[in-house]
Amino acid sequence: MRRIGWMAAVSLAVAGPAVAQADAPSQRALDRLADTLDYRFEVVDNRPACPADVANCFLATITLTIPDNLPAALRTGSGLSLYFSFVNPLARVESDLFEHSAINGDFQRLTLKPGAVLRPGSRHVIKLWGVGSHLSRAVVMPNAYLAAEGRRARVIASTRDTIDPDTGLPALRFVAPMTDAARLTTKSDDDKTVWLTPERAFAENAERATAPADGIVILPRPGQAEQHDGASVDLTKGVRLTLTGVERAGIAPALAALGVREGGGLPLAIRVDPTSGIAPEGYRLEARADGVAITAADAAGASYGLRSLAQQAAFEGGKMRPLTVADAPLYPHRGLHLDLGRNFHGRDQILKLVEAMAAYKLNKLHLHLAEDEGWRIEIPALPELAQIGSVRCHDPEEKRCLLPQLGAGPDGAPGVNGYLTTADYVAIVRAASARGIEVIPSIDMPGHSRAAIVAMERRHDRLAAAGKSAEADAYRLIDPADTTTYRSIQNYSDNTLNVCIPATYRFVDTVVDALAQMHKTAGTPLKTFHLGADETAGAWVNSPACKAMIADNGGDARNLTPRFIERVATALAAKGIRAGGWSDGMGHTDPARMPANVLTNIWGVLHTGAIREAHDQLNRGWDVVLSIPDLGYFDMPYAPHPDEGGYYWASRGVDSHQVFGFMPDNLPANAALIATTSAEPQAIEDKPVRAPGRRIAGIQAQLWSETVRTDAQVDYMLFPRLLALAERGWAPARWTPPYDPGQSYAWQDPRVDRAALAAGWRDFAGRVAVQFGQLERLNIAYRVAPPGARIVGGMLEANSAFPGMAIEYRVRGGNWTRYKGPVAVQGPVELRSRSRDGKRSSRTVMVSPP
């Protein structure tokens, strides 16, 4: 669903052999070293001459500077460990002091070489030969820490995940700037990617010229909307509400969003009539000086009518021009996926996103509740899942918590750790349901399941110690006699449920039943359960429990994952629940063994598998949702630049313009607008063709959270490009050529109406600028894009991606000045944009005279 091998999360540890507590340094000495040890990380070269035994390498370094006041007890490193994280597999580590060995996943070890001594004031450079590439500072993990036997582990102060006060985002001050474009931008000459410098951004912004919104500002854009002359529609004095065919509770959140007093003023009539001929979730809005009328076929449509009214009324200060709207969504599935497994994001953040989803007419919330790195939902019958599986801390034996992957640090502190209680989850489902949003819980299996496996091993240990062997085995998810050696994409050796044992299916039933009960308590049934089903490693080959099942499936253990999916999907169907999964796992199943009602998320990259998977699974009659990373993975960076956050295995840049331009109804046509990950134009063939009458169910944004540790980062990575996805899920991309089976498309293919795209973008960008104020009212810290800028003839020129963004500039070291137009400057100039409310800024960029 999201990774390729070189982006597997990796950690590094410096550790001496286990020693008795008496030989360990004192807590005071350990604390002082953690406070004073200087730790620096640098990406040196993405195109180095690799060592003879290392292929596809890059070179990074960690530089440790030992403090001058190093206590004598620490100079031999006896009992001392240093743990830190990294985001690529390590092929070789070279150091004058340390030896390297892998532990698991992104947790690894360097041990002090025999006879090696740490000297006060000394400086040590550790060379890390990683596999793949390291193209962004943002994928460096924070919170390196020191530990010793019997002592409390301490984060090295210089690596703490500090927050930049201007941007509100992690600063990663221990990571060296990446400035050498020749060595750091690409892996090879075949990669045509260039960094988005201020000069290039200026040209890009100018080409996509935008203007402030004027007229109808509703987002997503309605199917039909028209303003009229005449007396204004005055909402400032409140409304007199009358309801027909709908209870107030069915529209309450949307009514609250309108933000006007009730009990007097303008008549507001809302009628819900299933026989009205209006499409599901659609509405008709008539706003005149003598009153407002909204008609819909369901409560969702009535709510969307109110949301549209609220946006337009806010733009016009509560006194609107008369307006008529006839509107309905293009697709029934308009989704947002949020990964809570890698790094936790809690109830308040999710509730905030639920309200934002409703504001922009998104209707599916896909909550990824479990991963290798964390279990995030309370299951009362299995308390260890939340108690142990939700926390990462310093506990090498994992008796109390999971290994501290992804720079979680040693303390198990809130933030990246945590889980939703049953009450939290019920509150989320209730809030979502009240806004017409279906919550789709996801528990990834049989791969990506390490948190569950470890937690259930601790349950087994507790009950076995009490002499309850049968109860202990009831939910054990592994075959203890299995000697299979494997590595998952994320470099884990033990993250896959054993699909051949009854305990696994008992576990699935218990978890699903618990989730179904929570939905029932919330007053809305569990309709869809997403089982992941992706990226299953080469497990079970040597599992005695799987011997017969492997034999029954052609002697190939790889066939066991499809059998697992088919069995779970069938069991879900028997409970009245639709099964969902990621397209790679779902595509290997036998359709004859699957229920008819199936949801599949297509996560193949546009140029390397999206069309094959989407059309194949459409032709099976399944509900296909496009989750294509080039357009829908919002953990990818906004732009190709080392200071932009996110992983980059699928795209070096997914900006709002790229998302807005997506053509869901003609996937091959996207080759006209989107190049490969290496920025190379490449044609896309329509193979296999889409069968007549088949149409996608919708589109979905995904935010995976490996690099997203704070709620502010969630907001930054989602907005404003989630608004572009909301537009594409609701309104047609009018530049799309009609789908013609078997037709291939090439870069800048003339059949794609680029003039219509340009006009659509200008209109959309203006409407987005209007929404920044609404996002701020929702406390959403949307991305403030750095300005484009250039210096020509001694004059500084600057522009922005969206109209109306404030731009500031300064000569380095000077005071910030508001940019109002071309201005004479001398020497390099720094620039930044500011949020609409002035509370946050973009990252700072610099331009120099040519």
From TrEMBL:
Q: Which family does it belong to?
A: Belongs to the glycosyl hydrolase 20 family.
Kindly list the organism's lineage.
Answer: Bacteria, Pseudomonadati, Pseudomonadota, Alphaproteobacteria, Sphingomonadales
Q: Where is the composition biased (Basic and acidic residues)?
A: 831-840
Protein name, UniProt field:
beta-N-acetylhexosaminidase
Which InterPro entries does the entry link to? Beta_hexosaminidase_sua/sub, CBM2/CBM3_carb-bd_dom_sf, CBM2_carb-bd_dom_sf, CHB/HEX_N_dom, CHB_C_dom, GH, Glyco_hydro_20_cat, Hex-like_dom2
- Highest taxon of the source? Bacteria
**Which species is listed as the source?**
Sphingomonas plantiphila
This entry's Enzyme Commission designation comes to 3.2.1.52
Class of enzymatic activity (EC top level):
hydrolase
Q: Which SUPFAM superfamilies does the annotation name?
A: (Trans)glycosidases, beta-N-acetylhexosaminidase-like domain, Carbohydrate-binding domain, E set domains
Give positions of region: Disordered.
Answer: 831-850
Which Pfam families has this protein been placed in? CHB_HEX (PF03173), CHB_HEX_C (PF03174), Glyco_hydro_20 (PF00728), Glyco_hydro_20b (PF02838)
What keywords were assigned to this record? Answer: Glycosidase, Hydrolase, Signal
Signal peptide limits:
1-20
Catalytic activities: Hydrolysis of terminal non-reducing N-acetyl-D-hexosamine residues in N-acetyl-beta-D-hexosaminides
Ranges where the Chitobiase/beta-hexosaminidases N-terminal domain occurs: 35-200
